[in-house]
Automatic annotation (TrEMBL):
Domain of life: Bacteria
PANTHER family xrefs: NAD(P)-BINDING DOMAIN-CONTAINING PROTEIN-RELATED, PROTEIN YEEZ
InterPro entries per UniProt: Epimerase_deHydtase, NAD(P)-bd_dom_sf, NAD(P)-dependent_oxidoreduct
Ranges for domain NAD-dependent epimerase/dehydratase: 3-209
Protein name according to UniProt: SDR family oxidoreductase
Gene Ontology cellular component annotations, sorted alphabetically: cytoplasm
GO MF, one example: aldehyde dehydrogenase (NAD+) activity
Organism, scientific name: Leekyejoonella antrihumi
């Protein structure tokens, strides 16, 4: 199949593009800038110029393809509502093009906050009013009623690997700045994790085999204790490890403090069984011990 991928030059998107091409799909990758276009070309995919705000370009990309993987998103936390509205309009545009075709539409979501006191599962359906992006995922899944083979891949809180600039890289930068690798409280909050290559593999499996209206968990490790993450960062940087009181979370961690103290375990049992997904890449702590997170940029 020829798959249109938004976010094709991004962290998960580039791994997904590589996986799709490896399994003999063709890829049309959305690119807003010359830099993104060069990255998409280097991956071996065809470039489709446009942006998430350009609905005509999104419709054209979807119409020229046999399915859509929608991974692009504006993660500027200062403009969360705007980002969610842009995302919803993109999903609606894809739905209009794919309606009645039974072609796949795979969208990205997350596992944080789905359940309390237990690991979340693929069966959990959070209240759409809880967060705009949750509502967007619900809207995408509802496209199954219009003849779209829609599915949602919920990604672990940490999608890691060499070159990561996400949550764990931010924690490393904070530890380097503060001179201590910290965790909140007793550090027993759990972060689910998945390597980006395993995540890309799962997205491809969803493209190929996910039934309409289905949800999948890109979770290789159900929950890595935040204290273990802090200890691995401390070891990698040669810094002491210490607990920070929950009421000091924002002061120490900034915007990340509201997330790092949470407990978000998530199961992927159903995903592994039904999509025959078997994560094979290193776990988060092994990745941290590999040292790439602690390399200081030369420029």
């Amino acid at each position: 199949m020829r798959i249109f991928v938004t976010g094709a030059s991004g962290w998960i998107g580039s791994a997904t593009v590589t996986e799709l091409l490896y399994t003999d799909h063709q890829v049309l990758g959305l690119a807003r800038s010359d830099t993104s276009a060069a990255r998409v070309t280097a991956l071996g995919a065809q470039v489709h110029r446009g942006s998430l705000d350009d609905l005509d370009s999104l419709r054209a990309g979807a119409a020229a393809s046999d399915g859509v993987v929608h991974l692009g998103y504006n993660h500027d936390f200062s403009r969360m509502q705007d980002a969610a509205q842009t995302d919803l309009r993109a999903i609606e545009a894809f739905g209009d093009v794919l309606a009645g075709t039974d072609r796949p539409l795979v969208i990205a979501s997350g596992v944080a906050g789905l359940a309390t006191g237990r690991p979340s599962t693929e069966q959990d359906r959070p209240d759409p009013s809880s967060h705009p992006r949750v509502a967007n995922a619900a809207a995408a899944l509802a496209l199954a009623d219009r003849g779209v083979r829609s599915s949602a891949v919920r990604f672990a809180s940490t999608v890691h690997g060499p070159g990561d600039h996400g949550f764990v890289a931010v924690l490393v930068a904070i530890a380097r700045e503060k001179g201590v690798s910290a965790y909140l409280g007793d550090g027993d909050g759990r972060w689910p994790a998945v390597h980006r290559l395993d995540a890309g593999n799962l997205v491809r499996r969803a493209v190929d085999d996910a039934p309409s209206g289905s949800v999948w968990h890109a979770v290789a490790e159900e929950g890595v204790p935040t204290r273990a993450i802090a200890e691995a960062i401390g070891q990698g940087l040669g810094l002491p490890v210490a607990s920070v009181r929950p009421d000091q979370a924002e002061e120490h961690f900034g915007w990340l403090g509201q997330f790092f103290g949470g407990d978000y375990p998530a199961s992927s049992t159903q995903t592994r069984e039904l999509l025959d997904w078997d994560p094979t890449q290193p776990g988060l702590i092994t990745d941290l011990k590999g040292g790439s997170y602690f390399e200081v940029p030369t420029s």
